[in-house]
């Protein structure tokens, strides 16, 4: 007598398909966010399901951080966001490249740059403007944007190229 075909593989396959179908492809359901997160992320509600799960996760964490900010810090962040939105794609790319370059530097070098940037921010506006203008004049071709986060003469040199970070 031939063996009866087992229905186990078909049942298992059907259960796996059903389970996969019931798990949202986008990761986090918008309705599962807290009320405060939903309010903060409301501009993205219509496209939320189309966002990759990792982006949803980052946005959710950002909404949590936003809730913990003081009103003054929220205002600063809002201003930075507006400046970012007003930038053209080349400016944004340059900022991202500079950030990645900074991340590749040793921790002590990163800290030194942060301290120098803080000192620069604390200068009066007129002094900052004068320094920016002097820096622009020192560049070989002022029509081209700077390629790195360092002013001329302050380039960071390495013996070998920086290691590539996984993306």
Protein architecture, described:
- Helices cover 59% and strands 0% of the residues.
- The chain is an all-alpha fold and 167 residues long.
- It has helices at residues 8-22, 35-40, 53-68, 71-86, 89-104, 107-122, 125-138.
- Among the domains are: 26-86, no CATH class; 87-141.
- The protein is built from 7 helices and no strands.
- Residues 14-23 and 150-161 have low confidence and may be disordered.
- The chain is elongated.
Q: What is the typical, i.e. mean, pLDDT?
A: 77
Main sheet overview: none
Shape descriptor reads elongated
* Tally of DSSP β-strands: 0
- Give helix and strand order, one letter per element, not per position: HHHHHHH
The level of helicity is 55-70%
Tally of helical segments:
7
- Termini separation: 58 Å
User: Low-confidence runs (pLDDT<50, min 5 residues)?
Assistant: 14-23, 150-161
Radius of gyration, CA atoms, in whole angstroms: 25 Å
């Amino acid at each position: 007598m031939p063996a009866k075909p087992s229905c186990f593989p078909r049942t298992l396959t059907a259960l796996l398909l059903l389970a996969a179908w019931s798990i949202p492809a986008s990761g986090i359901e918008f309705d599962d966010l807290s009320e405060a997160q939903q309010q903060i992320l409301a501009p993205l509600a219509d496209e939320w399901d189309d966002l990759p799960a990792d982006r949803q996760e980052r946005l959710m964490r950002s909404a949590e951080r936003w809730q913990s900010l003081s009103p003054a810090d929220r205002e600063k962040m809002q201003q930075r966001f507006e400046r970012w939105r007003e930038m053209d794609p080349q400016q944004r790319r340059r900022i991202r490249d500079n950030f990645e370059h900074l991340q590749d530097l040793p921790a002590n070098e990163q800290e030194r740059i942060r301290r120098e940037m803080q000192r620069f921010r604390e200068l009066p506006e007129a002094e900052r403007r004068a320094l920016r203008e002097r820096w622009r004049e020192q560049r070989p071709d002022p029509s081209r944007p700077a390629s790195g986060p360092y002013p001329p003469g302050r380039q960071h040199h390495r013996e070998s190229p920086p290691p590539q970070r996984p993306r």
